[in-house]
Amino acid sequence: MDHFVSSDYRHGDARVSSRTDVLGWWRMTRRTRTGDLPSLRHANRLRVLRELQFVGPVPQAELARKTGLSPASVSNIVADALRAGLVNVTEGVRGRRVKLVSLSPSLGLAAGIAVDHRHLTVVVGNLSSQVLHAATAPIPSGADPAAVIEIAARVTEEGVATAGKGQQLVSVGLTIPTPVASRPDGDLSVIRRATAPGWWEMLPAEWVASRFGAPACIDNEANAAALAEWSLGAGSGCSDLLYVQVGDGVGAGLILDDRMYRGAGGFAGEIGHIVLDPDGPLCRWGHRGCLEALSSVPAVLDAARVTCPDVSTLAEVIARAEAGDPGCAQALTDAGAAIGRALAMAVNLLNPQRVVIGGLLMAAEAIVMPEVRTAYTRGVLPSMVVSTELVVATLGSDAGALGALALAIQALPDVALLGSAVDS
Questions:
Q1: DSSP 8-state code for residue 5
Q2: How far, in Å, are 33, 39, 43, 94, 262 from residue 27 at the CA level?
Q3: What is the chain's Cα-based Rg?
Q4: Phi and psi torsions of 91, nearest 5°
Q5: Which residues have a Cβ under 8 Å from the Cβ of 184 and sit 6 or more positions away?
Q6: Which tens digit of pLDDT belongs to each residue from 27-84?
């Protein structure tokens, strides 16, 4: 899990790192133009340090290209940051001997925590997005949010102790499998509609910040996985992405025009609640025939048990389908067809460059995806078949945690990077 984020935002004529909070960047540069920040030099220094969060050791010339600053400006900024202990400069060979710049490990660590219905995954990395430690832990049945966060805290503390060598945790990203609403100020920290008891109207980001003594941010699991796949995996290089995650539930994350799109209240991407069959099975919200009720892992298990009542896991369903059991095979192909129909609706509306499908159900890719493609092709406009790619996710079970780590690094306060140099 040694990954780096490598995509870019574009904002007007300036090139802005996708690793930077775009809203924060806009506010920063606006303040600079109106004289609220000490100087343009301060803003440029921050831009260089933000870029280093996600590119790893990089030659100064490439750093200048990525930030849009002159080589001379970057050289001066790097020299100042080196004296302040914010960066390391080493010699390397990239066709020729060059100076490679990276953030100093002394700046601290970030953690990404991905909570699922049955387990959680924690990754601990440095501020250059290099994963140093990863671990998973089961979530006991019926555990309330406080208990889940306490498990996450224990696993994270163990990871920091293993990877940190005395370094402090300076930012935490948390993702959960439920819609996360935004406050009027844009803060994503309120859960208004919960898929698990106890999360209703809670502020888990504040819990995490209090528990760790470090800034924390929260987002929906599918949004975080979309960010990870867009930056590191099957969605890399495209500006408009629809990521669909099919597991215990069905959700989606949207990247539109190189930005995460969350909708007016933070609930965009609830593709699992598109109704495909008004007479179909009930979903957990009381609707009939939703995509989630037809294609999630629990739905596949329910369908398979009609003819194979003893199956208890998705792996068993897949194994029996591959061995020729018609009931298990039908359960998987029906799920694939439902996904394809829903994707056609979404693509007809959004026309993204790429659709990435991930989640637990992709363990049955060989059986499911042909049905997805067939139903999708039947339902989408012919021109969309050409303009929109349909691919399978590449990060697998790592996507949520890697996305949570990226969220944590994006949300890192400026002072955590600038340190004592903030006013110099």
A1: -
A2: 10, 14, 11, 36, 20
A3: 23
A4: -95, 140
A5: none
A6: 444 444 444 445 777 788 888 888 888 777 888 888 888 888 888 888 888 888 888 8
